[in-house]
Write the structure tokens for this entry.
Amino acid sequence: MTHVSLGTADFDPRQFRTAMGQFCTGVTVITTLNDADEPVGFACQSFAALSLDPPLVLFCPQKTSRSWKVIESAGRFCVNVLSNHQQQVSAVFGAPGEDKFRTVEWDPSPSGLPVIKRSLTWMDCTVDRVEDGGDHFVVIGRVQTLGEVLQDKPLLFYRGGYLSTEHPRVTPAQAELENFLTWTGGDTWL
Ligand SMILES: Cc1cc2nc3c(=O)[nH]c(=O)nc-3n(C[C@H](O)[C@H](O)[C@H](O)COP(=O)(O)O)c2cc1C
């Protein structure tokens, strides 16, 4: 591992990764088109819903990400939320590669951005703001178009490995849920 300075922190990078790995997330592939209209993208777990009004989302690319440089220059991106059928898609887009789209099927969104087939859903966004985040950037995007939602299970990433969910789910109390941006049970969503 390259040398990392954690300043005054009383833990090492491995302990930090282990702690972060306890937080289970979904997996997305964030895509765009380069100057030659070729599809580009990378696997990204640091995606989150940010705001309902206006509709904002965020993700955090490493400063060294090749895809981020293309997204920055294009000013727009598409978030593909992966289903549990797409572990291999996550593996391909989670590693450096010249032509990651060679092995996946995709369609253009209405604005032309790559939508990977069998994704649970997708959203077309424009880059609204970029903040510094240490060795990452925090990219805030404004959602412009929402894709269809497939009835399938999500791909999850936990402790450095993949898993999926089983139904039925246990949900928190209704009163708590109503404050969540990701709550879809009521008619308050958009
Ligand atoms: C499940 C998974 C989640 C990932 N999440 C992120 C992330 O949130 N941010 C990031 O910069 N890289 C993330 N990566 C790593 C990038 O996908 C990987 O470094 C990729 O090679 C970057 O490609 P690029 O240089 O073409 O952009 C993740 C990889 C996997 C497999």
About this structure: The first strand starts at residue 25 and ends at 26.
